[in-house]
Specification:
Growth Hormone, Chain: A; globular
């Protein structure tokens, strides 16, 4: 290829890479959210109660959470591009096969297979953003990624809900799984940088040096609290609106898809704001910690209020929560990318996401148990989700130190 042609293509590479990764996460969140969209129909057809449904959610997050650390190690060893492609293949096939499942046990296996595939998403994208995106655009890059995974539930809930209302849940899983595989075609053609630009190959950062970082544990605690609320909303709100508030499937899909779209648009704005605040000379700590803290304050109020408000207030509270969640979403991964850099971002995010996704195992299962124990009431589960926000404030504001790159040579010495 002529040198001038290569130069013409060079500046568009980061946008192309980020755009394709955002698309993969868009697909990722559609595929993981299909179970919640079809929860009322699936549980009715297969004779499952809320505890069984919680176990299905927990099965996904069990595999998803435990595979994060090995996913980060694989991305460092074999490259983020290849590992993301393998993961996308696995999660697409598991979605497709769910359309043929015959009972609870088969669903558990396929949900765990889905979790294994999707565990690579944030470790690989964090590594590739740290290696391919200029420092002054890292917030916006994470905003675009955030838009991808947050608009996924909007599109999946709306399209999936309407299709399920017409054709049932099985054809939707088969269709979405087959379409998901098509993403591998453009991804196979993109070229990525796997390490820091214009730098020789560097030794791998020891895991023990990563685990010594106070910033890792502050971010992990905050991530845990934020995900407890988010996964509760993703997993139970569709069923809550249909069973407790009397919504039809189409009404539920319209409301939640609108809320998730607002969330996704707020993530784009949040990423842009992070870059603007840091470009103005203010610290990365201010740019990231402030939106994260505000999200937990709003999350606390929202979770406590939703089960007791009339339906109009309940929906308004949901939209307020989605706005502040979206604005803070890019910070979740901007923080480790600044701390860790290309050399350690994959494994840092692997550990952070492993801790941060424990609510998927314990929170989603426990919520189902609480709902059944309360005779179908969701109030106790909402209250617990609200209280967890206090832990998030402690993680981001107390435990997390100043956000700045770690000197790995000094740490490894």
């Amino acid at each position: 290829m002529p040198a001038d042609a290569h130069r013409r293509r060079g500046p568009s590479a980061p946008l192309l890479i980020v755009g394709l990764m955002a698309t993969s996460l868009f697909i990722n969140y559609i595929d993981r959210g299909n179970l919640a969209t079809g929860a009322a129909r699936i549980t009715a057809e297969l004779g499952l109660d809320a505890t069984h449904y919680g176990a299905l959610l927990s099965a996904f997050y069990f595999a998803y959470t435990l595979c994060h650390l090995p996913a980060g190690a694989l991305a460092d060893r074999f490259g983020g591009k290849a590992v993301l492609a393998v993961g996308a293949t696995l999660w697409s096939l598991s979605t497709l096969l769910t359309g043929f499942v015959g009972g609870f046990a088969g669903l558990v296996v396929l949900r765990m297979m889905l979790g294994m595939g999707e565990s690579v998403a944030f470790t690989t994208t964090s590594k590739l953003i740290a290696a391919n995106v200029p420092a002054g655009r890292i917030g916006l890059a994470n905003g675009i990624i955030g838009f991808g995974y947050l608009v996924g539930p909007a599109a999946g809930t709306l399209i999936g809900g309407l299709l399920m209302a017409r054709w049932g849940w099985r054809p939707v899983f088969i269709l979405f799984g087959a379409v998901s595989l098509l993403w591998l075609v453009p991804w196979s053609m993109v070229r990525v940088r796997e390490g820091a630009a214009n730098a020789p190959a560097e030794p791998q950062v020891p895991l023990r040096a990563i685990l010594r970082q106070r910033g890792l544990w502050g971010a992990s605690i905050g991530h845990f609290a934020g995900n407890w609320n988010w996964y509760f909303v993703l997993g139970y709100l569709p069923m809550y609106l249909e069973k407790a508030r009397g919504f039809s499937t189409a009404q539920m899909a319209a409301v939640l898809s609108s809320a998730y779209l607002v969330n996704a648009l707020a993530a784009l704005a949040g990423g842009w704001l992070i870059d603007r605040v840091m470009a103005s000379g203010r610290s990365a700590s201010l740019a990231c910690k402030l939106p994260l803290a505000l999200h937990h304050v709003v999350g606390l109020a929202t979770m406590l209020a939703m089960p007791v408000l009339p339906i109009g207030g309940c929906i308004a509270a949901l939209f307020a929560y989605e706005v502040f969640l979206g604005i803070c979403s890019p910070a979740y991964f901007t923080v480790p990318q600044i701390y860790a850099g290309p050399r350690a971002a994959a494994r840092w995010v692997g550990v952070q996401n492993m801790v941060g996704n424990l609510p998927g195992i314990i929170g989603t299962l426990f919520a189902g148990v609480l709902i059944d124990a309360s005779g179908g009431s969701y109030a106790t589960a909402f209250t617990l989700a609200g209280a967890i926000n206090v832990l998030g404030l402690v993680g981001w504001l107390v435990v997390l130190p100043a956000i700045k790159p770690v000197n790995w040579e000094a740490e490894a010495a």
